[in-house]
């Protein structure tokens, strides 16, 4: 059964460089050669050589060929002719393949209605590189799965090989129903299922400057915010909006409110004490912890932000506003229906905020960065 691609292609790898606007057409015989040339024009040789391994999205399972003497795995003595079919997958690396047309759905080679749409879709997928694994243990990776791949020769993007699926928590593992047919990658949109968020936001090359422009006080910590958001599987725009809200726009590690909640995500004294290994029930230790957090450097406090955000019962990836915001506000509601009502004490203590949606709306009310909903 084919899986329609819903939503725009996003970014998976932290390449820096201008996205090519050149678009290759479907029937170009030299598509792979021109794709390599386009990618090399976008990124410096050094950035390609030091980038790997790379994240990509499986478009189709092509595990249907036997190894031949011309295969690069045979060339390097990894496998031999006649070896039982090894896993082979057509994979899109968004940053490198922005010049190629996008397929309309993920599909296994033997699936589909065999009509013209199926044939056209598979002709497009045929334009993408074939990544081969060196073990039959890697069979059965479904189209739409985000995976690790690499090139034996990164500079020339040849000798592609398949490493395996990305583990949960590294990024969202499967996006097979998360994308919409589109030929545009480099159009300042970000795929929600790939980089988190349920909304389409700015391209990775623009997001850093967008955050700084919206929140000038964020500049000293913006790179750390983006890096941490990636590790959390969160949208960096949402993460910036959250810290803006929590710190009242200061992006300061020392900002405190009336109850001595402190810093980037307003650690309450008992939480700060617990994170520091102090007694969270001792008033003396809570006061001490609040003071320690107030005097922390950005690097130190960001470490505790990550420790807090990845501790139980919080769950990653935090790929929606609700999952990210609730990780700070009320973790047990990360995955509940967005209109679920909080306990009465929570509502009373938070000025009538009654549901996850209420909290999201409250955060966004004070946000300078917006992510527009993609219509289904």
Which helices and strands occur, and which strands form pairs?
Layout: E1 3-4, H1 31-42, H2 45-51, E2 54-61, H3 72-75, E3 88-92, E4 105-106, H4 116-125, E5 130-132, E6 146-153, E7 158-165, H5 192-195, H6 204-214, H7 222-232, H8 236-246, H9 269-275, H10 283-294, H11 298-309, H12 321-329, H13 344-349, H14 356-365
Antiparallel strand pairs: 1-4, 2-3, 2-6, 3-5, 6-7
Helix pairs in contact: 7-11, 9-10, 12-14
Summarize the structure in short:
The chain is 34% helix and 10% strand. By secondary structure, the chain is of the alpha+beta class.
What is the makeup of the main sheet?
5 strands, antiparallel
Give average pLDDT, whole number.
74
- What percent of residues adopt helix (DSSP H or I)? 25-40%
H/E element sequence = EHHEHEEHEEEHHHHHHHHHH
Structural class by helix and strand composition = alpha+beta
> Counting H and I runs of at least 4 residues, what is the number of helices?
14
How many structural domains are formed by the residues?
A: 2
Q: Supply Rg.
A: 23 Å
Q: Total number of β-strand segments? A: 7
**Low-confidence residue ranges:** 1-9, 16-30, 76-80, 169-204, 372-376
Any idea what the shape is? elongated
The strands making up the biggest β-sheet line up spatially as 5-3-2-6-7
Approximate strand percentage: 5-15%
How far apart lie the N and C ends? 20 Å
């Amino acid at each position: 059964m084919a899986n329609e691609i819903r939503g725009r292609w996003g970014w998976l790898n932290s390449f820096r460089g201008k996205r090519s606007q050149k678009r290759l057409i479907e029937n170009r015989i030299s598509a792979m050669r021109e794709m390599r040339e386009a990618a090399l024009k976008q990124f410096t040789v050094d950035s390609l050589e030091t980038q790997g391994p790379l994240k990509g999205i499986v478009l189709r399972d092509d595990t249907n060929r036997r190894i031949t003497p011309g295969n690069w795995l045979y060339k390097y003595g990894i496998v031999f002719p006649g070896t039982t079919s090894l896993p082979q997958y057509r994979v899109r690396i968004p940053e490198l393949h922005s010049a190629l047309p996008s397929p309309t759905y993920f599909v296994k080679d033997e699936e589909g209605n065999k009509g013209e749409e199926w044939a056209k879709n598979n002709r497009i997928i045929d334009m993408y590189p074939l990544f081969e694994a060196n073990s039959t243990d890697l069979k059965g990776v479904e189209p739409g799965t985000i995976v690790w791949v690499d090139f034996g020769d990164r500079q020339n993007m040849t000798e592609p090989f398949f490493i395996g699926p990305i583990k949960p928590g590294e990024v969202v593992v499967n996006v097979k129903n998360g994308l919409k047919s589109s030929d545009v990658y480099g159009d300042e949109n970000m795929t929600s299922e790939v980089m988190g968020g349920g909304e389409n936001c700015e391209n990775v090359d623009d997001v850093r400057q967008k955050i700084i422009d919206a929140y000038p006080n964020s500049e000293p910590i913006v790179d750390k915010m983006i890096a941490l958001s990636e590790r959390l599987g969160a949208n960096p725009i949402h993460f910036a909006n959250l810290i803006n809200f929590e710190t009242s726009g200061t992006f300061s590690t020392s900002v405190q409110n009336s109850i001595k909640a402190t810093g980037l995500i307003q650690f309450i004294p008992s939480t700060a004490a617990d994170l520091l290994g102090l007694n969270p029930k001792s008033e003396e230790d809570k006061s001490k912890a609040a003071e320690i957090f107030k005097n922390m450097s950005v690097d130190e406090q960001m470490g505790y932000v990550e420790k807090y955000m990845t501790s139980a019962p919080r769950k990653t990836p935090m790929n929606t506003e609700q999952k990210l915001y609730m990780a700070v506000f009320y973790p047990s509601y990360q995955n509940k229906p967005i209109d679920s009502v909080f306990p009465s004490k929570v509502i009373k203590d938070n000025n009538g905020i009654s549901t996850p949606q209420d909290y999201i709306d409250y955060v966004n009310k004070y946000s300078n960065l917006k992510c527009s909903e993609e219509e289904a």
